[in-house]
């Protein structure tokens, strides 16, 4: 639909013209071929002409048909647009907090009216969720790259303890630019209508970390590991938001201790199990010996 | 349409209150809350005659602005004298901020009533009253952040033209909001509602405003208006994206919202 054209133009402010317009145009260029043929139902033919933007340096605007042929493309662009607005809004968070105001400011930097913030929830939930999911994606990429390096043999494989510590530290460091308003974000994530999404994001992040740590358990271990790591992450996050030491040293030390605790507990549990088994075997052996000695085993 | 509202202008507000039992205030409040305007927004209120939406908008924006200022002050506990003096100057220049409302109506009488109300209630800034036809707005392209039409679009002869005009005058990223009577989705309530509309409202019209016919017309025009999904499709046809609607009081009224993206 003809709305696509204004999207393209108004959303590419000069400094971002290259990447943004290239992305949207690529999507629209694929569909250009079909609509061009069936350009009949144009009630909006007049509109594209009076809205020719001056800032659009690239080629002629393709003509669009009505709703039908473009639906999937528009849907894609709407989401992309929303992502772009939210990303732009992130830089206003330190000033306005995680709120509709920050989203409105973000929309303004993209050349849209502040009313576009109405697309999102009034309480800034989407902004927080977007940020968290962005952080998780970044973390995955980081871990993926590390894994590749290990596979290529360029770095050594870390111990599980070290790996977990580094992964959590990397993830928590992404919060540092927003740390002042992070308590607000946490409270937003705990709102009832956000809990499904935020829980989802949290569990998938923990899953990711364990996956790259090489966890292949298929039994109860799977649950306990995730529960433990989730606990460590949440408590470290809470420590971090009230940490005033330089570069959050206290937080990293706390993290180190917690991970060490968890690993120790795991080892202790293993030991107890094996000790128990050994003990049981010993007892069985003793019982058999007693039976032999007392002659109960003899065949009559 | 013009004559109906000429007769009706003076008593419009009273009739609204009595017909909807005062609930129309709540509906309009919900509309504003959904809009959630930030200071600096330019609103075009079409068919906004007596200014209900406009006044609510001004109140809302003012309170948001106050909250913002208070928050700013809290963060700046240690201001130098120069900064304090600067902030006083800034406030004196634009106490209302740069939000503005343009109230547009086809009917001069309604606008007159609206202007008088504004004076009476003490709204002096940021309001403009313009005569205009929703199918052909007297404004340039891409001027407004938000376009609202509350209980007005059913009276427009060519709704699609009005929607196209709305699309034209909105800035990119701008929002279209429409508050209008719609189809009730609950069958029991629907019967009660029909009863109420056809039996009681014209009677009220006669008693309070001395005009049976206009209110008969009102009720009929409500029935003729397309249902929620159909209206949503019409809005999408005009080019709006992310079109959605919210039913209030189980469908008696619906708020449709679309974005120009």
From TrEMBL, chain B:
Signal peptide residue numbers: none
Any single GO BP term: methylation
Keyword S-adenosyl-L-methionine: yes
Superkingdom: Eukaryota
Keywords: Methyltransferase, S-adenosyl-L-methionine, Transferase, Ubiquinone biosynthesis
GO molecular function: 2-methoxy-6-polyprenyl-1,4-benzoquinol methyltransferase activity
Gene3D superfamilies in the record: Vaccinia Virus protein VP39
Assembly with partners or alone: Component of a multi-subunit COQ enzyme complex, composed of at least COQ3, COQ4, COQ5, COQ6, COQ7 and COQ9. Interacts with PYURF; the interaction is direct, stabilizes COQ5 protein and associates PYURF with COQ enzyme complex.
Cited function: Methyltransferase required for the conversion of 2-decaprenyl-6-methoxy-1,4-benzoquinol (DDMQH2) to 2-decaprenyl-3-methyl-6-methoxy-1,4-benzoquinol (DMQH2).
Protein name listed in UniProt: 2-methoxy-6-polyprenyl-1,4-benzoquinol methylase, mitochondrial
Species per Swiss-Prot/TrEMBL record: Tinamus guttatus
Taxonomic path: Eukaryota, Metazoa, Chordata, Craniata, Vertebrata
């Amino acid at each position: 639909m003809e709305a696509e054209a204004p999207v393209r133009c108004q959303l590419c402010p000069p400094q971002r013209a290259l990447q943004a317009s290239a992305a949207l145009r690529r999507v629209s260029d694929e569909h250009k071929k079909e609509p061009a043929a069936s350009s009949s139902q144009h009630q909006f033919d007049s509109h594209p002409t009076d809205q020719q933007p001056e800032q659009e340096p690239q080629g002629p605007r393709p003509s669009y048909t009505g709703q039908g042929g473009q639906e999937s493309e528009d849907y894609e662009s709407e989401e992309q647009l929303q992502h772009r607005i939210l990303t732009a809004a992130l830089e206003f968070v330190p000033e306005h907090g995680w709120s509709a105001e920050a989203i409105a400011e973000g929309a303004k930097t993209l050349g849209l009216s502040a009313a576009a913030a109405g697309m999102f929830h009034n309480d800034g939930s989407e902004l927080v969720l977007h940020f968290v999911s962005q952080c998780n994606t970044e973390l995955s990429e980081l871990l993926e790259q590390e894994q590749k390096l290990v596979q290529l043999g360029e770095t050594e494989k870390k111990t599980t303890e070290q790996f977990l510590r580094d992964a959590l530290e990397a993830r928590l460091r992404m919060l540092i630019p927003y740390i002042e308003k992070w308590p607000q974000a946490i409270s937003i994530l705990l709102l009832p209508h956000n809990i499904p999404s935020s829980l989802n994001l949290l569990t998938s992040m923990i899953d990711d970390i364990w996956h790259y740590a090489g966890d292949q358990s298929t039994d109860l271990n799977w649950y306990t590991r995730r529960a433990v790591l989730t606990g460590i992450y949440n408590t470290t996050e809470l420590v971090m938001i009230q940490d005033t030491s330089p570069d959050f040293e206290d937080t990293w030390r706390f993290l180190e201790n917690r991970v060490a605790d968890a690993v120790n507990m795991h080892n202790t549990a293993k030991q107890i199990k094996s000790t128990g088994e050994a003990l049981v075997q010993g007892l069985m052996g003793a019982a058999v010996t007693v039976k032999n000695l007392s002659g109960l085993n003899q065949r009559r | 349409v013009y004559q109906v509202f000429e007769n009706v202008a003076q008593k419009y507000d009273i009739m609204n209150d009595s017909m909807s039992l005062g609930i129309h205030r709540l509906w309009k409040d919900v509309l504003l809350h959904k809009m959630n305007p930030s200071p600096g927004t330019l609103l075009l209120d079409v068919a906004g005659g007596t200014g209900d939406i406009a006044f609510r908008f001004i109140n809302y924006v003012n309170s948001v602005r106050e909250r913002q200022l208070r928050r700013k002050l809290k963060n700046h506990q240690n201001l130098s004298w120069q900064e304090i003096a600067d902030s006083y100057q800034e406030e004196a220049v634009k106490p209302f901020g740069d939000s503005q409302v343009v109230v547009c109506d086809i009917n001069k009488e309604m606008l007159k009533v609206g202007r008088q109300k504004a004076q009476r209630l003490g709204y002096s800034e940021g309001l403009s009253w313009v005569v205009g036809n929703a199918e052909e707005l007297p404004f340039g392209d891409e001027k407004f952040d938000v376009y609202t039409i509350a209980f007005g679009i059913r009276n427009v002869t060519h709704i699609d033209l009005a929607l196209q005009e709305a699309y034209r005058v909105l800035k990119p990223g701008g929002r279209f909001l429409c508050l209008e009577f719609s189809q009730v989705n609950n069958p029991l309530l629907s019967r009660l509602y029909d009863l109420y509309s056809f039996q009681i409202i014209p009677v009220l019209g006669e008693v309070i405003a001395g005009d049976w016919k206009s209110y008969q017309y009102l009720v009929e025009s409500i029935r003729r208006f397309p249902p929620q999904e159909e209206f949503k499709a019409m809005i999408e046809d005009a080019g709006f994206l992310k079109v959605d609607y919210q039913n209030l009081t189980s469908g008696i009224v619906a708020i449709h919202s679309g974005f120009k993206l």
